[in-house]
Amino acid sequence: MGDIYLIRHGQASLGAENYDVLSPVGIKQSQLLGRYLDDLGVTFDRCVAGEMVRQIDTGKHALEEMPGTQTRQIDIEPAFNEYQSDRVMATYLPRVLETQPNALHYVQNAGQHRKEFQRIFSQVINHWITDTNRPDDCEPWSDFVERVQGGLQRVLAAAGRGQNIAIFTSGGTITATLQLITGMPATSAFELNWQIVNTSVSRFQYRKDQISLASFNNQAHLDVHKRSEWVTFR
Predict the structure, then answer these.
(1) C-alpha to C-alpha distance for 80 and 203, rounded to whole angstroms
(2) pTM greater than 0.85 (yes/no)
(3) Cα 156–157–162 angle (5° rounding)?
(4) Are 190 and 124 within 8 A, CB to CB?
């Protein structure tokens, strides 16, 4: 039996010109993860990431702190990209604005209004995952889940017996995987999504074409330092 470690990227740069860059806290989180795993004796036989900078750089910073892991190569698998949040926001925010016209202010100033932005964003996501239509310019939730499933199938097909595989990805991808493995409704999966901590580890065990959940959202590498500012969710 082997293990797949689904690792959420470190804190990105919410409110900055380019969100897809690790913040200083995100870099620190990634380093702490690598040190913690290395101290536990965890080694990776293969590392995979989506195409996003924040995903790849989380892997790089973590692996730099894991001398016990021989590989430094991170294979790129586009299936593990996050869903297109900007596109989802543009498509479904108008529905929220119908009843909450001040929502646009919080979206445009997310860095200064993180709590309010999260509330609005949650409503947008709920519209997205429950929409039965298929907008031409926005990937449906069902298609996103199928994309993640394809990536997991390719990873499993290439996996050797008993290997440890790290996948550096995003919260949406982890949520989609939870739904695939547990069969829970998408709305329930996204209730868990909001709890996924930056650089947390969700571990899945596999054998042949079977995969099961072993642990979810482990953040021990952050908690052990008792620094609340290192525990972030966006």
Answers:
(1) 16
(2) yes
(3) 55
(4) no
